[in-house]
Structure prediction request, 264 residues.
Amino acid sequence: MMKVGYLQFNPVFGEVARNLDQVGERLAGLTCDLLVLPELFNTGYQFVSVDETRKLAEEIPGPTTAWLGKLAARRRMHLVAGLAEREGDRLYNSAVLVGPSGVIGRYRKTHLFFEETIWFAPGETGFSVFDIGHARVGIMICFDWFYPESARTLALKGADIIAHPSNLVLPHCPDSMVTRCLENRVFAVTCNRIGSEERGGKKKLTYIGNSEVVAPNGKILQRAKPDQPELAMVEIDPLEARNKRINPYNDLLAGRRPDLYVTE
Ligand code: ACM
Prediction:
């Protein structure tokens, strides 16, 4: 058994130190095995120029991942968190998996949403699964949910839990993750943010909260409100995700017919 959860909160745009403090304060006294934070949790989401994105982006490893690593070491836990990544001239909407010994994994968002396509390069890491001892953790970011291939690829690579940092603005994802979990027999922890941003004369974005933990049978084990901060933990048995048998006649992954599927 392990304790997994999310911290849904309202990052303040551009205020990295303040956002890290906010997370540190909200996690006081927490013990858990795996905590998911939102997409771009340390900077906020609504960038208005590439220059601004470059200034707020960090290398991985870098200051924010060092901060996450210290937190992970103090609490003997693992964290998955989204942040803007800079590597040379390239900027990515990335997420990291950090444990007590530092950065374990990095994922660069594959399916960029809306103006993210201006600020960031599309990720080329592909979908990876990392073994943290209690479980195998796969990572995807927000709009990746819209492409069922993302969660399917993580399931095929052996993920027990999909960690899903998000900044959702459209309403459909929380309910759709029920299907993503059911059709892949995996757990998912979607961590969304709350609040709104309206920067540089751009359209106001209101984030829909509704962070959640969903089980391989599609049951919503925990779901947050649309507009309140929430730190939630759920006890799960990640090994439930390894049983892909639907009934005595159907095995979920073995029953696939890839020879009949179109991939391009
Ligand atoms: C999103 O991918 N942040 C909607």
Summary: Residues 169 and 207 are 5 Å apart (CA to CA). Helices lie at 16-26, 50-56, 63-75, 116-119, 148-156, 173-184.
